[in-house]
Every structure is written in structure tokens, then in C-alpha cells.
Amino acid sequence: MPTKPTTTIRIDPDVKKRAGEVFDDIGISMSAAINTFLKAVIREGTIPFDIKSNRPKPNSNSGNAKLNHAFIVKKDEFYTEYGDVEKEILNHGKLLKGKSILCNCDDPFESAFFRFFIIYFNRLKLISLTSTCYAGSSLAGKEYPLEGGTCAYKAVVTEVPDDTIVRPDGSLDLESLFSMSGNYLAHLAGDGDFRSDECKALLGEVDIVTTNPPFSLFREYLDLLESHKKKFIILGNMNATTTKEIFPLFRDNKVWYGESIRSGDRKFYVPDSYPLNATGCGIDDNGRRFIRVKGIRWFTNLKACSPNTSLELTRLYDKDEYPFYENYDAIEVGRIQNIPMDYEGVMGVPITFLDKYSPNQFEIIMLANGNARTNVSSKTLSEVNYRKHPEDRGGVGMINGRRAYARILIRRKSL
Predict the structure, then answer these.
(1) What are the contacts of 266-269 at 24+ separation with CB within 8 A?
(2) SS3 content of the chain, % helix, strand, coil (to 5)
(3) What are all long-range contacts of 5-12, with beta carbons under 8 Å and residues at least 24 apart?
(4) Which of 80, 155, 378, 411 maximizes the CB count within 10 A of its CB?
(5) What is the CA radius of gyration of the chain?
(6) Would the pLDDT of 231 be above 60?
């Protein structure tokens, strides 16, 4: 049966974390503890303070070790900044109108995706928003725990109040939202993993998927969306672009980068006990921990962002400036801005070329990296006259006996 939350409690993150550790040791959920407290208040007619635990002090080494182990197992529980979500998805606004949306890698009450679509629900004239929570998440069930069963649940929204849904403190008025007849929270039968049959079935009920999937499972996630022929806007790391599963999608103009992120790193919020031991990590003014990750891009197959702006080329070909590879009939172009305007042959360009790629201007032939021999067809290798080199480690371009970086082999299209 669908379950509705009955109240909202805003709690200091540190108080919430430390209290949660006590409740875990006692063996009850935070929801059960709050209900116990409220019943005691009614019974005693005052605030009771006699509920105790024999647990060690909060700085116990054993407790910290337990938390550290949890995040060794679950290392990519990242939550995207709201501003990044808003800036990109509004680019696709016209294509979202009248659609049903699925966020299947999000805790609804922590997710910037859920927040965005609730705020813009009426403006985009959405049919529905479904967001699922994974039971293995450290945040599952902590904000709005459902009574009984697994922490995996789905939030379904089919209508949003016309009045503002955002409270003065910035939180969403979830009581008003889930008091509406078409909206509800419901337990999932399984653990909420996007690969489960239960969650796969949700793909058949929606038009567009948008979320931040675990980076470690990005290839598997994108393959799932492709197999279900879903439209999507998702966050990932550009390193995934060079894999055998994803590069062909770029080559064949089935997937491209979004418009709002082109370089630099992005900020992601992480659970309270996530280790902050790298450059750029920190805690913001609201007490939320964050890390920074380089090479982040939006991946989409929505036509609104299909690249069509041609690169402005200014350089002329000079054989002395553009050396040939020893194992490919192609020239090395080390910087995108140096692509010659008058060269008709094959060129090797950096991976970041995909940020500027226009299929109207260029043809992508293949990726020349250490997996080229096994990932590229013999026909394509023959087309670029690949010759096996003893030092190319599977197909990396060779110049003067040294390996170049991984390169995308491209060719200008005839005007």
C-alpha cells in the first residue's frame, strides 16, 4: 500500500548523524525513535530524558572503522549540485513538456534532480515524476523512513500545488506535496537497484530518464537505457567515452555531450562519513560534505542538444607541423584549435574533440587507443591503413618511435 509521510523535521546534520548512530546501536529506526519520544511526551506530560544507550562515546575507533568500511564498499554515492541540474536540463525544456520523468538512481529527498522536477513540474507540464531509492545507500530511509520493510522505495508525483512548494528555509513542503491524491511513497519489493527487474519495469512507464548513476556502473547503466530505447540526460565521467560500449554511440551520432559543462571539475555532495582526503574536498556553509571530480559531462540523446555548430578553423596544413603516425595513415593534431582547414585526409585529435564535435563538419572514424586492435573492425583498420607496431600497445598512434596519447581519428566532410 502507498505510504505518505506525516511530518517534516529539519535536523542539524551532525545531530542527525550522531543520533542515528545511537538508534542503530539500540536497534530501532529514527522514525520509531521519534514516535517513541512523542508517545512518552503524551504519557508523561513533559519531555522525557531517560532513554539511554550503553554505546561507546561517539569518537570510538570501532564505530569509525565500521563507517569507513561502509564507504570503501560504496564509494560513489554522489549527489549533484542543484545549479548544475537546473542549468543543463532547462536547455531541454521544450522536449520535456508533457513527458513522464524517471530518476532511478536517487534518494528523492536528497536528490537535486527530484527537487528540480518538483519546482519546475507545472512549468514543464510534466505528466509524472518517479524517483527510486536504493536500499544500499547510506541515506536510504533516513529523511523520511517508511514503516516496515526495506529502505528501498519509490516516490511518485503526478501533481504539484500551484502555490510555491519551496519553504522560506529552502526546503520543499513535502507534506503539501504528498497530501495530494495523485502523489505517494511506496516500498519496492527489492533493494531498488536499477538493474533489478522491478526497476527495469519502470523504464517502460516513462518517457525520459535523468539522474546521476554510479560512475562505477556507468557503462552498464547506459547500456540498459540503450536496450530499452530510452531518451535520457545523465551525468557521467568523460573517461567512459573511450570504452568499447560507449565510443561507438558517439561515433554513430547516437549520444553526445550536453551543453552546460565543457571543462573543469564539478562539485558533488557526499554522505556525512565520506572521507575528505583529496584536494578540493570540504564542507560547505550548510555543513554538507562535498568532493570535486574532474572530467564530468552530461550525456544525452535528446535532439535539442544534438551538436550542429561547426568549428571555426583558421590553420593551414603544413607537413612540418603535422607529423604522420608510423602505424596509421593519419596526421597528429595535438590541439583542437590547430585542426587545419585545408587537409582532406585522416587526422588524430584529442578526446576533448567530442566537446566541439559537429557531425555536419566531421566524420569520426575510430578511436586509436590501446584497445583499437580488438575494438575496431578489420575493415576500419584497413581504411586507415593500420600497421601493427611493436610499441603501440594495441593501437596507440606512434610518432618517432614514441606513443602519442589516445586519439580520435576524424576526417572532414566534403562541403
Answers:
(1) 266/80, 266/81, 266/84, 266/235, 266/292, 266/293, 266/296, 267/81, 267/84, 267/291, 267/292, 268/78, 268/79, 268/80, 268/81, 268/212, 268/292, 268/293, 269/78, 269/79, 269/80, 269/81, 269/110
(2) 30, 20, 50
(3) 5/144, 5/174, 5/175, 5/178, 5/185, 6/175, 7/175, 8/171, 8/173, 8/174, 8/175, 9/34, 10/169, 10/171, 12/287
(4) 155
(5) 26
(6) yes
For 107-160, what is each residue's pLDDT tens digit? 887 889 999 999 999 999 999 999 998 886 655 455 555 555 557 889 999 999
Going by C-alpha positions, the residue among 149, 158, 159, 211 that lies closest to residue 186 is 149
Cβ neighbours, 10 Å, residue 6:
10
Grid cell digits, residue 190: 527489492
Q: How far apart are CA 32 and CA 261, in angstroms?
A: 43
Is a pLDDT exceeding 70 seen at residue 304?
no
Which residue, 270, 274, 272, is CA-closest to 290?
270
The answer to whether 117 and 129 have CB atoms below 8 angstroms apart is yes
pTM for this predicted structure: 0.77
Q: And the C-alpha cell for 370?
A: 590501446
**Residues in Cβ contact with 124 at an 8 Å cutoff, skipping those fewer than 6 apart:** 93, 96, 97, 99, 117
- Are 290 and 269 in contact by the 8 Å Cβ rule? The answer is yes
More confident residue, 49 or 353: 353
**Hey, what amino acid is at 278?**
A
Strand segments (E) across 263-405: 265-269, 282-283, 289-294, 296-300, 331-332, 346-349, 362-368, 398-399, 402-403
Confidence (pLDDT) at 125: 97
The cell numbers describing 266, all together, are 564539478
Q: Give the residue from 330, 367, 339 showing the smallest Cα distance to 351.
A: 367
Q: Please, what is the end-to-end C-alpha distance for the chain in angstroms?
A: 61
- CB-count burial class (<10 Å; 0-12, 13-18, 19+) for 33: middle
* Pairing outcome for strands 265-269 and 289-294: antiparallel
Res 303: pLDDT: 81
